[in-house]
């Protein structure tokens, strides 16, 4: 019996010893496996560079060995270190978990606390912006801007009378504007400038230049005192060239050359002059806009090391961004996206590209990281909202950009029928959408206003609105032309009522596609019959330089302007054309001119007189239609809109916008002028673009324009976690 108990006791002891050994062996094996897994994760992180794979193994340690606190704490610490490169916010979370869950692991806690403090110090600094320029504040309109490399000067083009179209810069330290060129509009050999860009040292600028009487364009270089020289001249008519950016070292310029066939060539040109060397060519869509440059087709920027060119290109109505390897002459897409991506700018360190995109549903400034080989790294990210934004250039000081907002709406205002003096407050008409309505004109009976509306915000799609002044529903009619020229084009200045009030008319460019050259463009006259709600078209083929129509009293003929030079086959002047016979007669020809442009004409309400604006000399003339005699002559504004007639034909009214908005009422009889201030409390810094005096003389209708044009410098463009 004792023997049996002894055996049983030995067996229990043996089993207990065996079990104890198993537990010890199991703990030893588990500890060894956690360490081996940890070493494997470290190897994947440091040797293979596979941070995501390493994080996966570290998380496996946390899940499988939660009681091995030493290894677990080190694994959680390593997750934070991996995320410092993978994701800033995830790194913060990982280090905070070390402090929260492993307070007894002194070494891991000490390292995590130090890492966390360093990250908090580097935490994303808020982007902020400096306001560099405002058209409203400076009263000095700049176009085609570029910020100097040192951030102290804002380069641009200033267009004004009588100084012309010149390269200027604003000294941002003093606020003063300095002229680099001093061309005027009318002198022999003078011309226009556009697209100025800084040299790398900020001591020179390159720009394109054209002489009014010579169609050949040039690329010129000038110092800041105006000493300039031509480095390339387009000898062929209808070709143009303009600079994009200087290569590092300042010996070569990246430029765009537009051929007479409208092929756009991106290439290089030595600052010493010579042959343009093409790197890339594209044939844009026929409707591409080439006014001043080809930015709507291609807009480019050079990488800081000069090895790559990033550019957007318009294809099938969408802009996409591409990168050109200068040495290999190879082009590849920057990213795969169905969105509209445009205006790319390379960061000064070459590590990022900023661009505009609507990929988020609305326009915004985006950026994408770049590899040294010119390829994209990762996915794009939003920098800031950017509606109405255009990127200018990116310097060491920050990303320069402009914001352009324009609203145009129709107002009516009571006036004294004898003097035109304001007799009450202006009131906006009750029509929606607002912000896209202009060119109002009264019906002969005063019961309706006709005006133009960019009703749906679609480019090159306008509607004529017939608005009942006494109340009721407005009627809208789509303009039957796809060649209008923009959301509120100046071509709509000749919106007119037919003499009998049965409808309205306007003129627009012919065809669905542009002609081979500007000289071959013609215009068509459209008339809308309000009873049938149908448009009638007269294929009168007015030459492109002919425009701005108004009706003859009987409605069977019309008047139009013909701009041009002495050498033109068709002499400039004011012409009457009969619709049934097609015969023409000049009712006015300028006596002394080199180049004449007529911005607008307007017949008096009895159709006996005609007022017209002449850009050359900035004058307004009143013409007796029957005799052709000039009855009066007035000094006009820079870009005069059609003068509006008083009902009795004794006065003209024109808007002026200087320090305040004024109505100028001009007397036909004695040439006197009276000025009246207009209180525009609806929009600050508003102006009056066009106006019309009602048939009974008690009201005027006008288009109020509000424009906000500002330039900013965005600092800290790239957040710390994206650098």
CATH homologous superfamily annotation of the largest domain: TolB, C-terminal domain
Strand content: 35-45%
CATH fold node name of the largest domain: Neuraminidase
Class of the largest domain, according to the CATH hierarchy? Mainly Beta
Helicity level:
10-25%
Account of the 3D structure:
This protein is an alpha+beta fold and 723 residues long. It folds into three domains: 2-122, Tetratricopeptide repeat domain (Serine Threonine Protein Phosphatase 5, Tetratricopeptide repeat), CATH 1.25.40.10; 129-404, Neuraminidase; 405-709, Neuraminidase, CATH 2.120.10.30. It is built from six helices and 48 strands. The strands form twelve sheets. Strands 1, 22, 23, 24, 47 and 48 form a six-stranded antiparallel beta sheet that branches. β31 (522-529) and β32 form a beta hairpin.
Please give a quick description of this structure.
By secondary structure, this protein is α+β, with helices and mostly antiparallel strands. 15% of the residues lie in helices and 44% in strands.
Secondary structure blueprint with pairings:
Blueprint: H1 2-46, H2 51-64, H3 69-86, H4 88-101, H5 106-122, E1 128-134, H6 135-138, E2 142-147, E3 153-160, E4 164-171, E5 177-179, E6 191-198, E7 204-211, E8 214-223, E9 228-233, E10 240-246, E11 252-258, E12 264-270, E13 277-282, E14 298-302, E15 308-315, E16 318-325, E17 330-333, E18 341-346, E19 352-357, E20 364-370, E21 376-385, E22 389-395, E23 398-414, E24 427-428, E25 437-442, E26 448-453, E27 463-468, E28 475-478, E29 496-497, E30 503-509, E31 522-529, E32 534-543, E33 546-551, E34 557-562, E35 564-565, E36 573-578, E37 584-588, E38 595-596, E39 600-603, E40 609-614, E41 619-624, E42 630-635, E43 644-645, E44 651-657, E45 661-667, E46 673-677, E47 686-693, E48 699-715
Antiparallel strand pairs: 1-48, 2-3, 3-4, 4-5, 6-7, 7-8, 8-9, 10-11, 11-12, 12-13, 14-15, 15-16, 16-17, 18-19, 19-20, 20-21, 22-23, 23-24, 23-48, 25-26, 26-27, 27-28, 29-30, 30-31, 31-32, 33-34, 34-36, 35-38, 36-37, 39-40, 40-41, 41-42, 43-44, 44-45, 45-46, 47-48
